[in-house]
Amino acid sequence: MRRTRTAATAGLMTLLVACGGQDPAPPPASWLAEPLGAVITSDLVAGPESMPPRVENPYAEEPDALVQGRQLFLSFNCAGCHGAAGGGGIGPPLADDDWIYGGTDANIYASIIQGRPYGMPAFGPMMSGEAVWKLAAYVKSLRQDVETGVSRRE
Fold first, then answer.
1. Which domain holds residue 69?
2. What average pLDDT does this structure show over 27-36?
3. DSSP secondary structure of the chain
4. In a domain, 121, yes or no
5. What is the pLDDT of residue 45?
6. 103 is a domain residue
7. pLDDT surpassing 60 at residue 151
8. 44, 53, 99, 131: which has the fewest C-beta neighbours closer than 10 Å?
9. How many domains does the chain have?
C-alpha cells in the first residue's frame, strides 16, 4: 500500500516538474469564435427573458461588397447548387422568402460558416469574417419579391 502511494506521489511530482507546475495553455480560438452567439435557433432562453443582441451585416449597404460577394458566390461554386441567380437546383433557392434556417444576416452568416445538414458544406475552415459578410450580403440580395419577380437589391 505504502509502495503504491509512493509511486503515485513520485509520478505526480514528475508530471508537475515536466509541465513546469503550470496549467496547460488554453486551446487557440477557432473559426467558430465569430459572432455566432447571437444567432437565434430556438425560442428557449436560459435565465430571465431578454433580447439577444442583433447582429447586422456591416457590408449590407455597400455596392462594392455585393460585387465581391458575387465573386465569392461564383468562385466557391455556390451557383452549382443554388443556381446562378439563386433560383435553386440541387440546393434550395435563395431568391424566395422561404428559408429553412432563417434569412437574417446572422442566420445566413451561420449557414455559410457552419454548413447545414444534407449538402451545405461548412465554409468556415476556408473563409471567415469580412469575406463571409460580403458573401452573405450578396446571398441576401438574391431574394426577389415572389409576386412581381423584382429583385430586392437597392
1. 63-141
2. 47
3. -HHHHHHHHHHHHHHHHHTTTSPPPPPPP-TT-SGGGG----S--SSS--PPPPP--TTTT-HHHHHHHHHHHHHTTTHHHH-TTS--SSSPPSSSS--TT--SHHHHHHHHHH-BTTTB---TTT--THHHHHHHHHHHHT-B-TTT--B---
4. yes
5. 67
6. yes
7. no
8. 44
9. 1
